[in-house]
Design brief:
The protein has 238 residues and is an alpha/beta fold. It has a single domain (7-132, 173-223), classed as Undecaprenyl pyrophosphate synthetase (3-Layer(aba) Sandwich). It is built from eight helices and six strands; from the N terminus they run E-H-H-E-H-H-E-H-E-H-H-E-E-H. Strand 3 (91-96), helix 5 and strand 4 form a beta-alpha-beta unit. Helix 2 runs parallel beside helix 3 and helix 3 (65-81) runs parallel beside helix 5 (104-117). The structure holds farnesyl diphosphate. Farnesyl diphosphate (FPP) is lined by residues 11-16, 29, 32-33, 36, 53, 55, 60, 71, 74-75, 78, 127, 182, 207.
Length: 238
């Protein structure tokens, strides 16, 4: 398999999955947990060391309050119900995004899981919660500008590497592959800086149905890509 150090996934289509069955939207979100478990299993099996999931965007606050409340209850339930599984499989969980607006019980459950799984080394599961890439980039700019204003940083030293370091609080590599499910073809404010050279794959499958064969198709497609990073292909990739 072509090297895949970090797989990022925009889990889309939960609402459509439910609506097509005449079910309330929350049933699609609930069903989406099964797809999260399947992806974790596959990542462990395929030795993909890092997976990022877009679970709640900064824009998702605009959804009806009942849906937002349900989603946060679901995240909390996930963290509690999956505790044993995560520890048994050696899966480290961490979240990225804003923490100041998360409901307190969710934040507490998250911090507990992060602490309990910190030493797990088989898979790093990163969950984007209240995440928006533009906000993240603006925050990094603010942090660097503050350091410069205090005389702690020469503005000439603000390089791409330094910005990446400020953005990447948990030192995850940039994603090699970003998969978006449910047919939409956009990044929707997900990892805009980090995905500059990521390969993009759009799957028609709705997230609750996303399984091993969909992942295999994405990985096979990724395997056929030539990654050049703006240069010429490496001799072995030509
Ligand atoms: C997008 O589908 C999905 C979400 C906003 C929520 C994703 C959450 C989960 C899969 C549940 C739990 C996840 C973790 C990591 C514990 P949509 O509602 O926008 O679907 P639609 O476009 O069909 O309406």
């Amino acid at each position: 398999m072509k090297a895949l150090h970090h797989l990022a996934v925009i889990m889309d289509g939960n609402g459509r999955w439910a609506e097509r069955r005449g079910l309330p939207r929350w049933r699609g979100h609930e069903r989406g947990l099964g797809a999260v478990r399947r992806l974790c299993e596959a990542a462990c099996r395929l030795q993909i060391p890092c997976v990022s999931l877009f679970a709640f965007s900064s824009e998702n606050w605009k959804r009806p309050e009942t849906e937002v409340r349900f989603l946060f209850r679901l995240f909390r339930r996930y963290l509690g119900a999956e505790r044993e599984y995560l520890l048994a499989r050696g899966i480290r969980v961490s979240a990225f995004g804003r923490r100041d607006r998360l409901p307190r019980p969710v934040l507490e459950a998250l911090e507990r899981t992060e602490a309990e799984t910190r030493e797990c080394g088989r898979l790093h599961l990163r969950i984007a919660l209240d995440y928006g890439a533009r906000y993240e980039i603006a925050s990094a700019a603010r942090e660097l500008a503050g350091a410069a204003a205090r005389g702690e940083l020469d503005p000439g030293e603000i390089t791409e590497e330094r910005v990446s370091r400020v953005l990447g609080h948990d030192a995850a590599p940039d994603p090699d592959l970003v998969i978006r499910t449910a047919g939409e073809r956009r990044l929707s404010n997900f990892l805009l800086w980090q995905a500059a050279y990521s390969e993009l794959y759009f799957s028609p499958t709705l997230w609750p149905d996303f399984g091993d064969s969909d992942l295999d198709a994405a990985l096979a497609d990724y395997g056929r890509r030539t990654r050049k990073f703006g240069a010429l292909p490496l001799p072995e990739a030509r």
